């Protein structure tokens, strides 16, 4: 165990938390009471290194006073104005700032309150885009296996993540899923070291488009670096470039889900900038607000936004909390915090160092793959490294073992994956706040060493 390990913890059964259900991997909850920088404390005063930035969203760290001050000032001035009826200054200022931060050609943001809403909005935007151009028949949205796009109706249907949706099926529109296309467990191509594979996986996308009928396909959605469904994995080189070509050829909008990756997490402002590809719509959420308020955004490229300009009633969509002034003021303060300190460069620099140190985890037989970009890293666990056979423990047993051992060692982990209906693979994300330095990266690695050592020992008993 590490020096300040925290095995004395008060827990509350999930069934006693008013209205909350226990999750499969956590029957009892620790109560978190305070956060500062990359640390949080529980009700017993135990301190944890937040190696997952809350839920991959607390990108600027916990407890930043400037954000609290911005929120207070805005709440005193104007807490709410309906975006159906009015403009408001904080939302206009915030969307202008976002336009400075997004790649060239992205000038607009449709502000919502979560990642799921951002993706629902993107799908509706894509469908109306085709409708306005006389292509009402284009309604399907293709997505990849091993993907997560959210828990609302359309977003859940898009997600290639059985562990999060099987009990909800049949879903509203379970559109086709295309091969995942990531090198580890490609599951489609022969193992050729990933060289030709990107192209062949994307060729399979073309086959599916043709099978479905291109006149019915509105959009293709993908995470550039996958989060919960395949911790830190990206497709083979060449995949996104080929997808862009296919989208152009068949008049399909290319949506990148940057809910987790956007706003600097991978060491670029947006993860798709790691490739030479311009999408049609970017969605984002988590890092936008850094966890200080529920915020999401759907950002169409100019060529998509232009189609809505002459439409009398605009985008046929909206929620009560779209363009919320208080959230916008918070989002602005968070973005200022990031840009003033160049946290994207820090994610690149410290992320590179952390990634190198994470290679040490291959000393555990249960570690099959270490991957990721910037401060969005993932470790996949296996029963056998050679065959890549998944662990024997059920997903939830392994997830609770990892999470609780991590708590003992004073580090937060994000166990994900599972074994439901072929969504094989247990993994954990390592996604600390973008503010960490090399010393904090070392601390995370040391605590993860202590955690993995104990988990491996338990598994082999
Ligand atoms: N897309 C991705 C890539 C995500 O990681 C998530 C959240 N984990 C979502 C969508 C859904 O976002 P939210 O939970 O804010 O609805």
Automatic annotation (TrEMBL):
Keyword line: Aminotransferase, Pyridoxal phosphate, Transferase
Q: What GO molecular function annotation could you give as one example from this UniProt entry? A: pyridoxal phosphate binding
Q: Which Gene3D superfamilies match?
A: Aspartate Aminotransferase, domain 1, Type I PLP-dependent aspartate aminotransferase-like (Major domain)
**Record's keyword annotation contains Transferase:** yes
Please give the family membership noted in the entry. Answer: Belongs to the class-III pyridoxal-phosphate-dependent aminotransferase family.
Give the protein's recorded name: Aspartate aminotransferase family protein
Please name the source species: Haloarcula nitratireducens
């Amino acid at each position: 165990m590490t020096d300040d390990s925290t095995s004395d913890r008060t827990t509350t059964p999930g069934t006693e938390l008013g209205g909350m259900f226990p999750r499969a991997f956590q029957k009892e909850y620790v109560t978190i009471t305070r956060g500062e920088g990359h640390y949080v404390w529980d009700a017993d005063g135990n301190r944890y290194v937040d190696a997952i930035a809350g839920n991959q969203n607390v990108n600027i760290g916990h407890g930043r006073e400037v954000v609290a001050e911005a929120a207070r000032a805005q709440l005193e001035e104007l807490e709410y104005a309906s975006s159906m009826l009015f403009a408001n200054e904080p939302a206009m200022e915030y969307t202008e700032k976002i336009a400075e931060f997004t790649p060239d050609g992205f000038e607009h943001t449709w502000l919502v309150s979560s990642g799921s809403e951002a993706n629902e909005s993107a799908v509706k935007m894509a469908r109306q885009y085709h409708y306005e151009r006389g292509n009402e028949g284009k309604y399907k949205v293709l997505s990849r296996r091993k993907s997560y796009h959210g828990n609302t109706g359309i977003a859940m249907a898009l997600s290639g993540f059985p562990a999060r949706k099987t009990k909800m099926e049949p879903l509203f529109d379970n559109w086709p899923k295309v091969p995942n296309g990531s090198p580890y467990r490609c599951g489609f191509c022969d193992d050729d070291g990933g060289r030709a594979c990107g192209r062949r996986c994307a060729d399979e996308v073309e086959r599916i488009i043709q099978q479905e009928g291109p006149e019915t396909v509105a959009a293709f959605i993908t995470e550039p670096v996958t989060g919960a469904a395949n911790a830190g994995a990206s497709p083979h080189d060449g995949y996104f470039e080929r997808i862009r070509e296919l989208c152009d050829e068949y008049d399909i909008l290319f949506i990148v889900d940057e809910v987790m990756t956007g706003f600097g997490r991978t060491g670029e402002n947006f993860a798709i900038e790691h490739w030479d590809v311009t999408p049609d719509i970017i969605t984002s959420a988590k890092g936008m607000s850094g966890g200080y308020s529920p915020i999401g955004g759907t950002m169409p490229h100019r060529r998509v936004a232009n189609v809505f300009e002459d439409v009398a009633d605009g985008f046929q969509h909206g929620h009560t909390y779209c363009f919320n002034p208080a959230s916008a003021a918070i989002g602005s303060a968070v973005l200022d915090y990031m840009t003033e300190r160049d946290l994207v460069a820090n994610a690149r620099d410290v992320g590179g160092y952390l990634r190198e140190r994470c290679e040490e985890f291959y000393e555990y037989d249960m570690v099959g793959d270490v991957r990721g970009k910037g401060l969005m890293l993932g470790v996949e666990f296996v029963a056998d490294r050679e065959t890549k056979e998944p662990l024997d423990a059920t997903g939830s047993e392994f997830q609770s073992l990892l999470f609780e051992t991590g708590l003992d060692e004073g580090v937060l982990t994000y166990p994900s994956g599972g074994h439901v209906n072929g969504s094989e693979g247990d993994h954990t994300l390592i996604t600390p706040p973008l503010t960490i330095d090399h010393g904090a990266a070392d601390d995370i690695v040391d605590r993860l060493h202590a955690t993995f050592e104990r988990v491996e020992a338990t598994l082999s008993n």
